[in-house]
Write a structure and sequence with these properties.
A 6-stranded mixed β-sheet has the order 2-3-4-1-10-9, with no helix packed on it. Strand 3 and strand 4 form a beta hairpin. It is about 10% helix and about 30% strand. With about 210 residues, it is mostly beta strands. The protein has one domain.
Length: about 210
């Protein structure tokens, strides 16, 4: 089995130097912006082809001022469904559950139930990792020697995953704005006004008030 790396982030993740093989925007509008808002799932093959990286990005659309207060919702389980046979049915699952400042990661293991219902097999391989604080200078990781899984949870990307040293604050919206990756930062409530403004400018129409 390939080594697996699990990353759970409470802010936007910038991944460099890896091959993206999957990404999914799957969450429902009803939870958008809340503590259970899963904004993205990613899967990467590392520079070391024996490594596969799975990323779940939570609360990625928070306002910049709220990023430091981001936290995992203990009522939400994140599950990675891994299809190894191409039949669109999960053959392996990795389940991550936050509790008391730690992330409990079960798997990878073959589930007894597939589809929309999920049951945690507490006898499966368990990896426990402390959630890295927002102010931490370095990420906290845990390696499960029996499965090869490396787990990380928090607002930063592990250097070992990307093979690159990432600049301080790289995942914050202000950093992306300063370096030209974003044209502006707007609160969700102001998006309609901004979109209308851009449409009017592009079409050379009178700007709506």
């Amino acid at each position: 089995m390939k080594k697996l790396k699990l990353i759970l982030g409470t802010s936007v993740l910038a991944i460099a130097g890896l091959l993206t093989i999957a990404a999914d925007h799957i969450d429902a509008p009803a939870v958008a912006g809340g503590t259970s808002d899963i904004t993205d799932f990613y899967a990467f093959q590392g520079e070391d082809t024996n490594n596969v990286v799975f990323v779940a990005n939570l609360q990625g659309l928070m306002s910049p001022s709220a990023t430091a207060g981001a936290a995992f919702d203990e009522n939400v389980m994140v599950e990675f469904n891994i299809d190894t046979t191409g039949d669109n049915v999960e053959d392996l699952v990795i389940q991550a559950i936050p509790k008391n400042g730690k992330m409990y990661v079960y798997g990878p293991y073959a589930p007894n139930h597939t589809g929309l219902s999920s049951i945690v097999d507490e006898s499966a391989a368990l990896t426990i990792v402390d959630v890295t604080p927002y102010t931490s200078a370095s990420p906290i990781t845990t390696t499960n020697t029996s499965t090869g899984l490396i787990a990380f949870a928090g607002p930063r990307v592990v250097k070992d995953t990307t093979g690159k040293e990432l600049p301080e604050g790289f995942q914050r919206s202000e950093f992306l704005l300063e370096h030209g990756f974003l044209d502006g930062i707007y609160e969700r409530k102001n998006l309609k006004e901004q979109i209308n403004l851009y449409i009017d400018l592009i079409q050379n129409l009178p700007i709506r008030k």
